[in-house]
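Appendix C reproduces, verbatim, an entry submitted by the partner laboratory led by Prof. M.T., so that reviewers can inspect both the input and the predicted structure.
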Amino acid sequence: MSSLKTQVILLTKYFRIEGEIDLLPGARLTDFMNDVKKIMVVTDAKVNDHNGKELLRGKFINVLVRNIEVILPAESAL
């Protein structure tokens, strides 16, 4: 089954990460988070500090799930 690229925003204690994750069609972000074990893959990622300073960009980064405090679809961000 193919997956869909979903734009997300992740907030950690120190970083704001914007990028894409692979969701199965019809899957909810909550279900995805419940299934992720230790590391989440984020593609086409941009990492900023909370003041908006860009720290890095990467085609592929791993994020430790235990460090994620907030995750939301980018389309629902204000």
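The CA atoms of residues 8 and 76 lie 9 Å apart. Additional entries are available on request from the coordinating office.
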